């Protein structure tokens, strides 16, 4: 029986995936990296340092950035991102998420947050959703990021649940890999093509309802 639901944040609960993009695009422009749809998709779910590396790999010139310069670029991105977060309101919650969280609470599911973002608590506070989550994984305490399963395995442990008692929800291909590697049932939010390894894919968060999930479980007789 499913008892817990583990959420990614950016692009699942809030539209911060877009805000991360806006801030990274600025860095890309600054270093002369070409911003593409595929670069933007590859950044989803990836830590700040690793995201910067991916952007620097897309720079045609062979200038090598030293650690200090990289730190500066990462700091600039975060300052820009936090300015955008400061202006967030409840309107930045993705559609259907509040009713979904409410229905999970009413049905006594336990909720955890498994975001790679060091800003996740701040974002949850800004949009007023902190109280729904009994556990928030601290990504700074992990040794490996998504697609490693560690963040989802840790979330399940914090909820005192086994992986097969949980569902994980992600918008990033890397995140789906991480959920699957943790042996947790995976739900992808977005394009089927990108999230093809997920157990179920919903095109958008409006379709994320307990009924839709249950329907799937009944069909599969899980
Ligand atoms: C999430 C987002 C990424 C972001 C990463 C680190 O995984 O999907 O876009 O780069 O968190 O976020 P942070 O707020 O710590 O820079
Ligand atoms: Mg995400």
From TrEMBL:
Top EC group: isomerase
Domain of life where this protein originates: Bacteria
The entry's keywords: Carbohydrate metabolism, Isomerase, Magnesium, Metal-binding, Phosphoprotein
Enzyme Commission designation: 5.4.2.6
Catalytic activity: beta-D-glucose 1-phosphate = beta-D-glucose 6-phosphate
Cofactor(s) required for function per UniProt: Mg(2+)
GO molecular function: beta-phosphoglucomutase activity
InterPro entries given in the database record: B-phosphoglucomutase_hydrolase, Beta-PGM, Beta-PGM-like, HAD-like_sf, HAD-SF_hydro_IA, HAD_sf, PGP-like_dom2
Pfam short name (any one): Hydrolase
Family, per entry: Belongs to the HAD-like hydrolase superfamily. CbbY/CbbZ/Gph/YieH family.
The protein's name in its UniProt record: Beta-phosphoglucomutase
